Amino acid sequence: MEKYIVKGGRPLYGEVNIQSAKNSVLPLLAASVLTDEKVIIHRCPRIADVLNMVQILGELGCKTSFQGDSLVIDSADAANHEIPSALAKELRSSVFMLGSVIARFGRARIAYPGGCDIGLRPIDLHLSGLRRLGVQITEDGGYIDCTVEKTVGADILLDCPSVGATENIILAAVKGKGRTVIRNAAKEPEIADLQNFLNRMGAKVSGAGSATVIVEGVGKLHGAEYTPIPDRIEAGTFLIAAAMCGGELLVKNALSENLAALLHKLREISCKIHAENDKIYISSKRRLSPKLIETSPYPGFPTDLQAPATALACICEGSTVVVENLFETRFKHVPELLRMGADITVRGRSAFIRGVPALHGADVYAGDLRGGAALTLAAIAAEGESTVSDLYHIDRGYTDFEQKLRGAGADIRRIRV
Ligand code: EPZ
Predict the structure, then answer these.
(1) Which superfamily does 22-224 belong to?
(2) 364 and 227 Cβ atoms separated by less than 8 Å
(3) What mean pLDDT comes out for the span 188-214?
(4) If you compute the radius of gyration of the chain from its CA atoms, what whole number of angstroms results?
(5) Is domain 2-19+230-416 annotated with CATH 3.65.10.10?
(6) CB of 373 shorter than 6 A to ligand 1
(7) pTM
(8) What sign results for the dihedral spanned by CA atoms 4, 255, 228, 85?
């Protein structure tokens, strides 16, 4: 087991380089199964979720290899339509494999992905969308079996703008017959990244980033090379770190247009922000309360930055209400923040936070990916020494997290216990 040892209270000065977006790379890897030609994903982060997905591709019969930071995937010999249950349970985003495995083999079998650390994570919209495309789906003994000769285009309305359901339907429809229209589609930048990658492979997808995505089925997809967009959630995590610790930070390989909701909040609390090309500069002295942070689908405030923003609100002047509208149990970081001296009351999906001058060090435990990142930020901003345990949660989504923070002046190191 590994943990961070942190001596908090130091301002951050320096710069950090942002990785490619985890939530873009995962659907791109799923899309690589749609062709029997080679696909290369450049700047591919070696985070646990990606390595798990690479393992799933291997189980399907794909050949994968890292060449430097490029991942080469050759699906020519892929033949297995069953997504291994152990891995599927381990990795929520294995659900994204459904659409592309069905499109490749005409069938797919996957263990019903359970809930996870942050909520129930239903997949009813994925399944209803696939059924609209003509996929026969049976569920028994915790498994989902899908079969279809070839998907047939349909007009699909999503009850809520689910990222995964939007991506799965696109992946299942790109080689189908005719036109598919997805209404109330998710608008996250990662959807546009998937569209751009698929079109480079010869697909005909349009409208990603808007509420209506259109897929014209094509006969065949060819190989392609692609560099995913930067990880807006990692960039946001470091911007919040700077706001909490004070100092000045240059976040490189970060697209400000994908972080508008966070940048608005950081300016509200009196951070100085300057964005130019793919760099975002932040300096922070005072922290006024943002009053209200309410998560909502893109372009609203991202749920994946709710935990770091909650940690920030703990040391802002004044009170803040944080409302988590997307997931049922995404406040696991709150009991740990209370142990660091935070003043938070949770009622249902709302956290009522009264700002304190500073948090103090404590031994805390990451309960999930973004909660673990939030507790690490709280530890480097707190007065005194902390430990953060269960780092495997953080390793799912952040490469070199402590190295990047240390490079900007934080006193943080990882030890094995
Ligand atoms: C993606 O998860 C991201 N994961 C999540 O990031 C992110 O929090 C989420 O989108 C929201 O932005 C990846 O892209 C790999 P959703 P996903 O389907 O697709 C409900 C991280 O930390 N819903 O958009 O699973 C659901 O309950 C992870 O990087 C249904 O009701 O999220 C939730 O309330 C965590 N039925 C809402 O939609 C469904 O069939 C949004 O979920 C599907 C979803």
Answers:
(1) Enolpyruvate transferase domain (3.65.10.10)
(2) no
(3) 98
(4) 21
(5) yes
(6) no
(7) 0.97
(8) positive
Ligand 1, atom 6, residue with closest C-alpha: 304
Q: Is the CB of 93 under 6 A from ligand 1?
A: yes
Share of the chain above pLDDT 90, in %: 92
Ligand 1 pocket, residue 130 CB under 6 Å: no
Where in the sequence numbering do the catalytic residues fall? 116
In our burial notation (b when 16+ CB lie closer than 10 A, e otherwise), range 211-224 reads: eebbbebbeebebb
Identical fold for domains 2-19+230-416 and 22-224, yes or no, is yes
Domain segments of the chain as ranges: 2-19+230-416, 22-224
Spell out the residues 6+ positions from residue 227 whose beta carbon is closer than 8 angstroms to its own: 20, 41, 42, 43
The per-residue pLDDT for range 42-57, each reduced to its tens digit, is: 999 999 999 999 999 9
Write out the two tokens for 30.
């799923």
- Expressed in angstroms and rounded, the spacing between residue 309 Cα and the centre of ligand 1 is 19
Cβ atoms of 377 and 241 within 8 Å: the answer is yes
pLDDT in tens, 235-245: 999 999 999 99
Q: Please give the distance, rounded to the nearest whole angstrom, from the Cα atom of residue 284 to the centre of ligand 1.
A: 31
DSSP one-letter code for 330? -
Measured distance CA(175)–CA(182) in Å, rounded: 15
